[in-house]
Design brief:
The protein is of the alpha+beta class. Helices cover 34% and strands 24% of the residues. The chain is built from one helix and three strands. The protein has a three-stranded antiparallel β-sheet with strand order 1-3-2.
Amino acid sequence: MNKKGSFYVVFFTIILFVVVITVLFFFKKQVTEEFSAQTFYDEKQSCTSDITCSDGEACTIDSCIDGFCKHTEVLMCYMDDGCCPENCNQGNDNDCLG
């Protein structure tokens, strides 16, 4: 491959990388905004990993951020996650009873 061809391969690889990173960033932001509502930080509960932050509530996503636990309320309807948010029913979330 000549120098010009190598340049284009590197150039398009960098462009592709930037596009993928940008798409992933916006997808993560959209998913976070769409699937969660209020976030509660527990400044009394220190942590080293997400697993140490369980608050025992099925309708929260528990995570460890900067050494403190964060609990984010789940709003979306999912089957078999143990949570039935207010806007869900038995037709779109089998965790909802009756």
